Automatic annotation (TrEMBL):
Top-level lineage group: Eukaryota
InterPro entries xref list: NAD(P)-bd_dom_sf, SDR_fam, TIC32
Organism: Punica granatum (Pomegranate)
Organismal lineage: Eukaryota, Viridiplantae, Streptophyta, Embryophyta, Tracheophyta
Pfam families: adh_short
Gene3D superfamilies: NAD(P)-binding Rossmann-like Domain
Protein name in UniProt: Short-chain dehydrogenase TIC 32, chloroplastic-like
């Protein structure tokens, strides 16, 4: 982790914000789906992509909240191209309906950003393994689609309000070890838009730099097992 503003090979660090890592980038002509776009770093990711000119489809579970966030962004960026569509990732029926509706919309799809609300433990490992195997499958098929995974970092959120001790600790030392939301969205926006990442696939990013995940997350056999399990679980052919 590139702490305290120390920059990695990309020229960015843990202190870099989403706006900083996308400065000067023109994303007009790109269409992105952002899941979890109505809260936390999902909102900032949506805002910054729209700021750079991308058409962002906000995939949200609660449409009312999604529309409220959309209106807030539009007040700041009146020319932003934003749409909201309902998506509950815990329901395969919802996922299939979303996919069907999106295809029917005729919109292109240049970026798919899975902004997971669970970023630790087994879910984090599964995300890395899935991206690794997806990148391998896409390469074998000869497509020009890339897939990468990332860790946004430890972010100070309002969840801490339920833990008085942790909240007090975060208030005193958090500025040194925790990211704010603009910093938390930086790696996502970097991987999505920065020219340095063009053509890069199957990598893991942290603090807007390529990083090395755990040995378990680099296990190709485990990645394939997870892929096959997911295919069977979702009944995809």
């Amino acid at each position: 982790m590139w702490l305290f503003g120390w920059k990695g090979p990309s020229g960015f660090s843990a202190r870099s914000t989403a706006e900083e890592v996308t400065h000067g980038i023109d994303a007009s002509g790109l269409t992105a789906i952002v899941t979890g776009a109505s809260s936390g770093i999902g909102v900032e990711t949506t805002r910054v992509l729209a700021l750079r000119g991308a058409h962002v489809v906000m995939a949200v579970r609660n449409m009312e909240t999604g529309r409220e966030v959309k209106e807030v962004i539009l007040k700041e960026l009146p020319s932003a191209k934003l749409d909201t569509m309902q998506l509950d990732l815990s329901s395969m029926a919802s996922v299939r309906k979303f996919a069907s509706d999106y295809v029917s919309s005729g919109l292109a799809l240049n970026l798919l950003i899975y902004n997971s609300i669970q970023a630790y433990g087994q879910s984090k490992l599964a995300n890395i393994l899935h991206a690794k195997e997806l990148a391998k499958q896409l390469k074998e098929e000869g497509g020009h689609v890339t897939a990468n995974s990332l860790h946004p970092g430890s972010i100070a959120t309002n969840l801490l309000r339920y833990h008085s001790f942790i909240n007090a600790l975060a208030s005193s030392i958090g500025k040194y070890v925790l990211k704010n939301v603009p910093q938390g969205a930086a790696t996502t926006c970097y991987v999505a838009l920065h020219p340095q990442v063009a053509g890069v696939s199957g990598e893991y990013f942290s603090d807007s730099n390529i990083a090395k995940p755990s040995a378990l997350a680099q296990d190709s056999d485990l990645a394939k097992k997870l892929w096959d399990f997911s295919i069977n679980l979702t009944e995809l052919k």
